[in-house]
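batch_manifest entry 22 of 60
target: Molybdopterin-dependent oxidoreductase
source organism: Gordonibacter faecis
requested by: lab member K.T.
priority: normal
notes from requester: please return tokens only, no post-processing; we will run our own comparison against the previous entry in this batch. if the run fails, retry once and flag.
--- input ---
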Amino acid sequence: MSLSNHALSRRSFLRASAGATAAAAAFGLAGCASDAAAEGAGAPAANADGSHVVASDVSVVGGEGEWMPIHCHQNCNQMCLNMGYVVDGVVIRQKTDDAREDSFDCPQQRGCLRGRSLRQQVYNADRIKYPMKRKNWQPGGGEAAHGELRGKDEWERISWDEALTYVTDELKRVYAEYGQDAVVCNAWRWAPGSAMFPVIGGAVYDTETESFGCWAFQTEALGLYSWGDHPDLMMGPDKYDLPNADTIVLYGCNPAWAQHSSMYWLSHAKDAGVDFVYVGPSYNVTASTLGARWIRVRPGTDTAFLLAVIYEMIRLDEERGNIIDWDFVNERTVGFTPETMPADATTSENYRDYILGEYDGIPKTPEWASEICGTPVEDITWYAELAGKNNKVVFFHSYAASRYLGAENLPQAFMTVSALGGHYGKSGHGSAAIYTWDAGDSGYRLIQHAGGDYAYIDNLVASPAVTGPNRCIEGNSYWSSLAAGTYISTSEGPYDLGSEVPNAAGGADTLTANGLVVKASTKLRANTPTYHEAREMPVNPRILFATNSNFMQTRGNLPTAIEVMRAADMCVSVEIKYSLTAQFADIILPVATHWEGNDDEAWGELCWPSPFGDGNGQKQRKDALLAWRPLVKPLYEAREEKAVFREIIERMGYDPDDAYPKSNYDQWLGYFLGMRELSEDLTRWEPVLTWTAADNEKYHANYPEQQGKVSFDQFMADGAYVVQRSATDRRNYVGYRDDKLGMGPDGEVVVADTAWPRPSISGKLEIYCQFKADNANRTGLNPEPIKPYANYFVPNRGYQETFADWDNKVKGAYPLQAYTPHYLRRAHTCYDNMTWTQEAFVNPVFMNAQDAADRGIKAGDTVMCFNDFGRMLRRAQPLEGMMPGTVAIPHGVRSVLDESDPAGIIDCGGSEQMLSDGQQSNYFPQVDGYNSLLIEIEKYNGEPIPEDYDRGPFLAAGIDAPDTPAYVTDGIYETKEA
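--- output ---
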């Protein structure tokens, strides 16, 4: 059965299902059938020489369909371009950007291996095809819920009406009996479903810095820049200035695994002769590709390392000079010396004297730091020399190093090293984050959303605040707080801006809606959440509503998560696939992917994909606008997610327009038509797309006509519009440059502004920041106050805790430090159910080769990773390029739970969430210590675990409909004929 010799309509495709058998036959998707089964189930035809006929290629060559633009719709934030070839309502092929010749000045927007495998996700056998109910669950709570069977029970198919009746009846009951404290929005606060709860009765949310770690809470208070809640972005040099550096430092970065376009820009700089340095616990693929010098630093010990670097900068400058840029320090920083203390300082402690040990009797020498961070003393001194004023250095950081417990002072220490060398505001210098769309080509957004009536207007981010003060569980205590029935709150909400504060010039600024200053003024304000004294808040998780998230797989403390889910009255999962969170639900509501939509009444209910994540964030490169539109009609009984939420609101007796006042279609069209490009002379914003009266008629719209760079239809056909740039373009960028050009809250150029003063109370970079200390200490959570400068303290779950006796260096029960890097085959948990990428990139636990040898572990051995909180199995991959005592457990793999062991659950899938107890940050409650795991590893004596690609798709047990070719029995995936 192939498209070259057998007609396959959309309806017959749905009847056959896109399960393993039909997918393998029609679309080349790897299924879970045996070779013999495949041969008898419509395997692709073979040519005389034995090679297979690739049906999709035949269809493309024959011109039977059309290429349509799509993009990656999940959480990697780069938004690269893919094109789908659609034949009779089915995507049979993908490609990436080829509408223009690739060039450095106008690059193609190429998709990565994840995005180019997305057919395997859309047409996967694990898609939720129709609403389902857990067999033994009944409404009413208590024993009727049979919560002990969550995660193990079978499923039954129900209608949409039945499913929504169950959901709304239980919501009404729980609101009436318990109030809003009993409803938990088990989702990111910016998910579309989050906007529903303020309308229907409220909920308890969560807030954390899942991506940004400790960088999120002090960025603008220190004088740096934050784009909304994205800290320290857009202030590095752009791709044209990178080659002007002598050296680029990549601190905890691995963009080769992240698969962003940054490797293009970094490789270009390397070709121009720039040297690279990598700082981190393992010599990763990026460092190897760029030939970087490796500066070894143990997990979570970065602050100690940087303090020793600062010590050496002071020493070297005193001995021979020309290390510290004293002009920059004296004019544009505060707090390094007694002479530069800020006006609001409440102590006379300056930072130089702290580093020299004047206040605590501990000089922060390389010898002191080396014992903690494991960096050779000579490397610390070398790094300090590199950071000196006469070297042209760009310091790039990811956020990985700030996702450790005890990293609260890391951003300030990192900034201080850069400031002492004067690496701000000059060509060939820089200091900023390197992150997704901003990675390696920083600076102003050259294509910017116009706003106004065209803007994305669903009120998602503000949802927690609307339901009342202190409505967010903060940080990694999420599951433990739900289990305890109380949580500690230290801020009103995720974007609480606190009170106005004066700057050095006096007065207080007028803020924009998101707390940023649009035009320069002598009145500045730190865009930092303002904390209050910690308050205990009640929560009673009777209903957990999961949407646009997979919290069972992305929040730490999975054992407690299982307990919480099993204790609830009802768990709802709004999903596209059978995720772990869906496995522990009672009602599963199937929703469409971004590929799916319907504008044809003949096909049934009209719907359009939600533009959320696109129009609201514009998480694409600064000089590109990517097209996308629905490729196929919704599969099976899947519905567009906001249509589901609107119906719930209506059934609850409220107006859905209060949550979603603008249609998805209008948002989609307005998103593109509202885009503007910054003119080359920096004087105006010009429309990207041309829009005519004929377009209004064709697209059933009423937008003003405008003349742009390309017609709307041509833009959709090409898939992207990319700004033509050059090395002499005035729009090119160097961060913090004092050239009368400022940056507005959305990253746009504001010509009347200057880069200085900075958005801190002093208007300078604050090496001593009183606001930071007062803000953190106000909570009262830590009896030892944090300092206004980057002081060192022993962190929770840090290197020192791997010892039973630190002074005598006697190791404890859990001597290994595990951290959780993002893995190139997935983005968090997204994309990880695709067999192609599972086969290409297996999912081991990486460990130091000597540590493995000491434990009798070889490559490919199944190992048990364990601590006091949980146990999980993975295959080992020893590496020479990892520091001794360190372990890398790639984040986001799906759990496969074995509950047969009396000693407790074993995760045979190998999720790192089994090893975390939800330990909180020392000072900032919203920070998750994802990378702070202390464990032991031993060779497993049981049966070796299968590779992920050998497990087959995860399917809902008990569903044996004709379109489901596989089923689950006792956790073992088998195949049987439909």
